[in-house]
Write a structure and sequence with these properties.
alpha/beta, seven-stranded parallel beta sheet, 10 helices, about 270 residues, five-stranded mixed beta sheet
């Protein structure tokens, strides 16, 4: 039985992760962390998911969390994630990071921490999304040099980072297959009338923020006379949470290293 702590227990994903841990026979919910002096402090986690009592109350003490768990699952903010890494290293705890919106420098901090603890760091924990990543490698290899490539993503109105971490990962995968630099060839949205003809090498990104859309990601490969779209649509967050729990269980046999969900799923 793997003891798992949830970081950001009161958030949308935090609540889904709590459900997923309770539904997985090999995992045990042992801690739930909230922000300092949060209104959820002291509440039984069962109330967060409208279920029966779990006996695990929400705490704002990260050291207490470290002492009671084998692994952590974190869907919060870059600031929160980075503040926890030194404690994870101190207590030798693995962590699954589903947080997005990190800067290049912040990602490097995660890479350094992974030299001493095991980390699964992925923009999307969904099995379907990671299968899509694999399909993108095949599509880019086959079609990429002769297609205009666009990535379109849709999320709920409260999502702050754009493009999404998943969309950026899609672009990175495609760019890597085509030996392109995403930093040099990405185009984030278009506006105006004097942009000229679209260069074939660019990879376009379009972000939509509206309503309660959980998540939709599409990669469009548009050639002469035909177009192919690879799309993943989420109707709920439960598969993200289930993937995160699967990653936490997978970490149990690791001592250090930086991994993603494609490693977890052996894709």
């Amino acid at each position: 039985m793997i003891r798992i702590a949830v970081i950001g227990a009161g958030g949308r994903m935090g609540r889904e992760v709590i459900k997923a841990i309770l539904n997985e026979q090999q995992s045990l919910l042992t801690a739930a962390l909230c922000r300092k002096n949060d209104t959820l402090l002291g509440i039984d986690t069962g109330k967060l998911i409208n279920g029966t009592k779990t006996g695990v109350t929400v705490t704002d003490n990260p050291e207490k969390v470290m002492q009671s768990a084998d692994a952590l699952i974190d869907f919060t903010t870059p600031q929160t994630t980075l503040s926890l890494l030194p404690l994870c290293q101190q207590y030798n705890k693995g962590i699954v990071i589903g947080t997005t919106g990190f800067s290049v420098e912040e990602k490097q901090t995660i890479q350094v921490a992974a030299k001493s603890i095991p980390i699964v760091f992925a923009p999307n924990m969904s099995t379907g999304v990671n299968l899509m990543f694999k399909l993108l490698q095949v599509a880019a290899k086959t079609l990429g040099k002769h297609s205009d490539i666009e990535i379109i993503e849709k999320h709920h109105r409260n999502k702050q980072d754009a493009p999404s971490g998943t969309a950026l990962k899609m672009g990175e995968i495609i760019a890597d297959v085509l030996n392109r630099s995403l930093n040099q060839h990405a185009v984030y949205g278009r506006h105006g009338t004097k942009q000229g003809i679209r260069p074939r090498e660019t990879i376009g990104f379009s972000s939509i923020r509206a309503g309660d859309i959980v998540g939709e990601h599409t990669a469009l490969f548009a050639g002469e006379g035909e177009q192919i779209e690879i799309t993943h649509t989420s109707s709920s967050r439960n598969h993200y949470a289930a993937g995160a729990v699967q990653a936490a269980l997978w970490l149990a046999n690791k001592t250090s290293g930086l991994y993603d969900m494609m490693d977890v799923l052996d894709l």
